[in-house]
Write a structure and sequence with these properties.
single chain, 822 residues, Immunoglobulin-like, 7-stranded mixed beta sheet, 6-stranded mixed beta sheet, 6 helices, 26% strand, binds copper (II) ion
C-alpha cells in the first residue's frame, strides 16, 4: 500500500486524540464568517499538507529565515503590544533541538522544469545559519539537466535551493549538508546514568536511591523530600539545562541529598508504609514562574476565584510554583493521592492561594514548628503541646500503604493546570515496590513457594530505563523556527539547552487553501473543523499579514484573510519532542556483558509512545565525524522472500529495519500491574497498521513489539549472550500521535526535508534529532581481556575453622581464579 493512502486512514482513525481548541477565557469581537469557505476539514492528511506546501511555494513562500519576513521577536524587554504570531508560515513556531551545520555536500535535481534561459541557483538556509554555496545549472532545450556544486559554502543547517529565471518554471532541487559538521547533538557519546553515585555517567548524572529513616515512624519508611530548581547537563553537546525536581533532605549522605534528574528513587517493600514530608522550595515571586510557556487560559493555570486585593473584578492568578506529589499506579488513601487540588506553594509566597482546597494531612504525622515528632504511629491526638498535623507552610504529608504486589511506579507532580509542564520540567522520580515473591526471584530462593525451580533473575531489582522526549532550545536558530519564544531568557536572549515547549497554536486547517490545510499547522481549530464549533465566543479574526496586492511590499498571497484568535501563549493539546532521553541522558550508550540483564522500563514521556526493538547497528554507515554503529540498517518495506510474515510491506518512507539485523527479543516478565503470570517473548517487530477498511479497528496499529504508552512500564529480561562484541541500538517506531502518524514527529536519519510544512530538515547519521534511535548497547566480548589474579591476601581471618575451607572468587568481570586457604 502506498504511504499516502495509509496515512489518510490512520489519521482518520487517530483524530480522536486531537481535540479541537475552541474556547478560551478572553473578551473580543464576535466571529467573522470567512467570505470563501472551503469544505471544512476533520482530517488533514500528509497529502493535504504537502499539496498546501507546494501551493505556498508556488506563491513564493519560503520557510523560516529564507522568507526574510520580520520575525515576531519580543526579546526586547518593555516592548508593548505584541504583533500576532505568524500562523501560516514562514515560521513553524515549532522548534527543534540543536542540529549540526556544515557545508553543502550534494545537490539533487528533482525536476528540470521548462522554458529556462538563464537560471540562477541559490542556496539559502531556513534557520539562517549558512551561506556561500554556489551552484551552476546546465541547460538543454530550456530544461535544467544538471546542477554542479561550485562552492560548498559553510554553516548550513537547513539548506533551501531556489532556482530563478526570467522565463523558466518548474525546476526543483534539494541540497544536503555533509563532509565536516559542527555543533548539533551527537548520538551515543554519553554513558547511561545508573543508580547512585557508583552508577554515575561521564557527566556525573545518576539516579540516587533514597535512604529510609526507619526510626522516626517504627515499621515505616520516612522520607523528607524537597522540590527545588537546579541545572543539570543532559548531554555532552548541551550546556546545563534548568530543571525542577526532587531531592531527599533527611539523609546525611551527600551523594543522595543533591538534586539529580529523576531522583531520588524510593524503594519500598510491600506492607511497609512509606511516609513523606514534602516541602516545596521552589523560588517565590516572579522567580517562581515556570521557565516554559504557561497557557493561563487552561483551567487552573491562571485565574483563580478570588478578587485581587483592592481590585474588584480582577481575579488573582494561581502561581506557577505550585506542586504536589502523586504516586502514579499506587492504591493510596485519597488524602495522600496528590490530587490536582492538593498542591502547595513554597513558604513565603505572597498569594491568596497558598495551598490547594483538597489538601489533607496524614492524621498520625505530627509536627512542631515544621519539625517531625517521632513515634506517633496511630496517634491521632496531639502527642505534645503545640503539635499539629500541618507540617508547615510549603509542606505536605503523604502516606503510602504499599499494599500491592511488586512493581515499578513513579511519583510526579499533579498540580491543577500545570501538571504536564511541571513533569516535563523534571518533577518525576521512580518508586520501586518489592515483595517476598520478587525477593525469591531475585535471590534464587523459594521461601514463598513461587520459585520451585530456584530461578534467579539477573541484576537484582533490575536496571531502570526511564524514557522521555524533550526539545532543547538552540539560541542560534530559535528565532528562525519559533520567533515567539521568550522563556528562560538571559540578558533578554534565549538560552541554548533550555527546555522548549510549543506556545503558538498553529491550526492544521486553512479553509482558504484549496486543500483546506495549513502546511505549518499541527492542531485542530474548532471553527475550521467539521462540524465547526458554532458556539465559540472568539472565532477567527482578520489576519494582519493578509496582503493579496502584488504591488505592495508586504505582498503575501499565501496568507488567508482570517486567522485564529488565540491567547498569547497557547498550549498545544500534546507536544511530541525530538530528543529521546534515557535516565535523563540524551542518546546514551550502555556497556553490557554477553549475558542476561533485567531492565525496568518506564515511558515517562508526556505524549510520545514507544515501540521498542533491538537491532544490531549498521557498521557500514560512517558519520561526518567518523563514527560508526549509530544507525539501524533499513530495507524497503515490501514483500521480500525470507522476511517475517508480519514485516511491514507498505512501502513507507525510509523503509523498515532489516530483519537480518534483529537483536535479542524482549522476555517480558512484568508490567505496571506487577509480574505477569508467565513470561512473554516479544520479538522485534516494526509497527504495522490495520489497512482493512471493513474492520472496526481499521487504521489502528495491528503489529508491534514492546509497545509502551505514556506511564506504562515493562519489566523485561534481555539476553545479550548471542551478541558478544556487537553493538545494538534500541529502536522505536511508534507513531506520534498514536495510532496515527504525523511524519513531522517521526525524526529519523535521512528523513525528508519538511521545513516547508513546519517540520525538520534532514537528520544526519550520528546526530539528532532522532526519535527512532534511542540508545546504544555495546556488548562486550565473551572472554574479558582483563588480567589474571597474582596474589590474594587475607583481610579477616575469621575463627572456628576446623578443615581447609573453600575459597571462592567472584566479581571484577573475570572468572576461573582459584585459591587455597591454610
Ligand atoms: Cu501519572
Amino acid at each position: 500500500m502506498k504511504r499516502r493512502k495509509f496515512l489518510q486512514y490512520s489519521l482518520a482513525a487517530g483524530i480522536g486524540l486531537l481535540v479541537p481548541r475552541s474556547v478560551f477565557a478572553q473578551t473580543g469581537t464576535p466571529p467573522l464568517r470567512p467570505p470563501q469557505f472551503n469544505p471544512l476539514k476533520r482530517k488533514v492528511t500528509s497529502a493535504d499538507r504537502q499539496a498546501a506546501a507546494q501551493r505556498a511555494r508556488t506563491l513564493g513562500l519560503k520557510p523560516g529565515a529564507a522568507a526574510k519576513v520580520a520575525q515576531t521577536a519580543m526579546y526586547a524587554p518593555g516592548m508593548g503590544e505584541m504583533p500576532p504570531p505568524h500562523y501560516f508560515g514562514p515560521f513553524a513556531n515549532y522548534a527543534n533541538s540543536p542540529m549540526p551545520s556544515g557545508p553543502i555536500s550534494f545537490v539533487y535535481l528533482d525536476y528540470g522544469g521548462h522554458g529556462y534561459t538563464a537560471p540562477v541557483v541559490t542556496i539559502e538556509d531556513v534557520y539562517g545559519t549558512g551561506s556561500g554555496a554556489e551552484v551552476r545549472a546546465s541547460l538543454v532545450g530550456g530544461v535544467i539537466t544538471g546542477l554542479t556544486l561550485v562552492k560548498r559554502g559553510s554553516g548550513y543547517t537547513a539548506p533551501l535551493v531556489s532556482i530563478t529565471d526570467a522565463t523558466g518554471t518548474g525546476a526543483e532541487a534539494r541540497a544536503i549538508i555533509g563532509k565536516v559538521l559542527t555543533g548539533g547533538i551527537r548520538k551515543f557519546v554519553d554513558s547511561l546514568p545508573g543508580l547512585n553515585f557508583g552508577g554515575r555517567n561521564n557527566l556525573n548524572q545518576y539516579i540516587p536511591v533514597a535512604i529510609a529513616d526507619t526510626i522516626t515512624f517504627p515499621n515505616c519508611d520516612y522520607y523528607e523530600i524537597e522540590l527545588g530548581e537546579y541545572t543539570q547537563q543532559l548531554h555532552s553537546d548541551l550546556p546545563p539545562t534548568k530543571l525542577r525536581g526532587y531531592r531527599q533532605t533527611n539523609t546525611s549522605d551527600a551523594t543522595v541529598s543533591g538534586f539529580h534528574y529523576l531522583g531520588p528513587l524510593i524503594v519500598a517493600k510491600k506492607n511497609v508504609p512509606v511516609r513523606i514530608k514534602f516541602t516545596n522550595q521552589l523560588p517565590t515571586g516572579p522567580d517562581g514562574n515556570l521557565f516554559i510557556p504557561v497557557d493561563k487560559t487552561v483551567m487552573g493555570a491562571g485565574m483563580g476565584p478570588l478578587d485581587m486585593e483592592g481590585m474588584p473584578g480582577m481575579k488573582e492568578d494561581y502561581t506557577q510554583n505550585r506542586a504536589t506529589v502523586h504516586l502514579h499506579g499506587a492504591l493510596v488513601p485519597w488524602i495522600s493521592d496528590g490530587t490536582p487540588h492538593q498542591w502547595t506553594t513554597p513558604a513565603g509566597e505572597e498569594t491568596q492561594y497558598p495551598k490547594g482546597v483538597s489538601v489533607s494531612y496524614v492524621p498520625d504525622m505530627w509536627f512542631v514548628n515544621g519539625e517531625v515528632v517521632a513515634d506517633t504511629v496511630g496517634v491521632t491526638t496531639p502527642p505534645v503541646d503545640g503539635a499539629t498535623n500541618n507540617p508547615g507552610d510549603g509542606s505536605l504529608t503523604f502516606y503510602y500503604n504499599n499494599q500491592q504486589s511488586a512493581r515499578l511506579m513513579f511519583y510526579h507532580d499533579h498540580a491543577y493546570g500545570i501538571t504536564r509542564l511541571n513533569v516535563y520540567a523534571g518533577e518525576a522520580a521512580g518508586y520501586l515496590l518489592t515483595d517476598d515473591f520478587e525477593q525469591d526471584l531475585i535471590n534464587g530462593a523459594n521461601l514463598t513457594g513461587v520459585d520451585p525451580a530456584l530461578v534467579k533473575l539477573p541484576d537484582g531489582s533490575g536496571i531502570p530505563l526511564i524514557l522521555q522526549d524533550k526539545t532543547f532550545v538552540d539560541a542560534n536558530t530559535i528565532a528562525a523556527q519559533d520567533p515567539y519564544w521568550r522563556w528562560n531568557l538571559e540578558a533578554g536572549q534565549p538560552v541554548t539547552g533550555s527546555l522548549w515547549v510549543p506556545s503558538v497554536y498553529v491550526p492544521a486547517q486553512n479553509p482558504y487553501d484549496p486543500t483546506g490545510a495549513n502546511p505549518f499547522g499541527r492542531w485542530m481549530y474548532g471553527p475550521w473543523f467539521w462540524p465547526p464549533t458554532s458556539t465559540i465566543e472568539h472565532g477567527p479574526v482578520p489576519n494582519e499579514y493578509y496582503q493579496p496586492d502584488p504591488n505592495l511590499p508586504n505582498y503575501a498571497p499565501w496568507e488567508p484573510p482570517m486567522r485564529p484568535q488565540m491567547p498569547d501563549t497557547s498550549m498545544g493539546m500534546e507536544a511530541f519532542n525530538d530528543t529521546p532521553l534515557v535516565n535523563g541522558a540524551a542518546y546514551p550508550y550502555m556497556e553490557v556483558e554477553p549475558r542476561s540483564y533485567r531492565f525496568r522500563i518506564l515511558n515517562a514521556a508526556n505524549d510520545r509512545f514507544f515501540n521498542l526493538q533491538l537491532y544490531v547497528a549498521d557498521p557500514s554507515v560512517t558519520t561526518a565525524d567518523g563514527r560508526t554503529h549509530t544507525e539501524v540498517k533499513m530495507v524497503p518495506a515490501m514483500e521480500t522472500p525470507g522476511f517475517p510474515p508480519t514485516w511491514s510491506t507498505d512501502g513507507r518512507d525510509g523503509g523498515v529495519p532489516d530483519p537480518a539485523a534483529a537483536g535479542p527479543a524482549w522476555i517480558q516478565i512484568g508490567t505496571e500491574g506487577g509480574f505477569l503470570p508467565a513470561p512473554v517473548v516479544i520479538p522485534p517487530q516494526p509497527i504495522n497498521w490495520n489497512g482493512n477498511p471493513t474492520t472496526f479497528n481499521f487504521g489502528n496499529v495491528s503489529d508491534h513489539s514492546l509497545l509502551l504508552g505514556c506511564a506504562e512500564r515493562a519489566d523485561v529480561i534481555v539476553d545479550f549472550s548471542q551478541f558478544a562484541g556487537k553493538t545494538l541500538i534500541l529502536y522505536n517506531d511508534a507513531p506520534s500521535a498514536f495510532p496515527a502518524l504525523d511524519p513531522r514527529y517521526d525524526y529519523h536519519t535521512g528523513n525528508p526535508d519538511q521545513t516547508d510544512s513546519g517540520g525538520t530538515p534532514t537528520t544526519q547519521p550520528g546526530y539528532g534529532p532522532n526519535t527512532r534511535t534511542i540508545m546504544q548497547f555495546r556488548v562486550g566480548p565473551v572472554n574479558p581481556t582483563g588480567e589474571g589474579l597474582s596474589s590474594i591476601s587475607v583481610t579477616n581471618g575469621g575463627s572456628g575453622y576446623t578443615g581447609a575451607p573453600q575459597v571462592s572468587i567472584s566479581g571484577g568481570g573475570g572468572s576461573g581464579a582459584t585459591a587455597a586457604a591454610t
